[in-house]
Amino acid sequence: MSEPGTRAIRLINIKFRFDRYHASGGSMDLVLGLQQIVMEFHFSKKVALPFKEVIEKITSELKKEGFGIITQIDMKETLKKKLDADFRNYTILGACNPRYAYEGLLEEDKLGVFLPCNIVVQEHDNETVEVSVANPEEMMHNVDSLTLRTFASEIKGSLLHVLENL
Question: Given 2.60.40.10, 3.55.10.10, 3.30.310.70, 3.30.450.40, which CATH number is that of 40-164?
Answer without folding.
Answer: 3.30.310.70
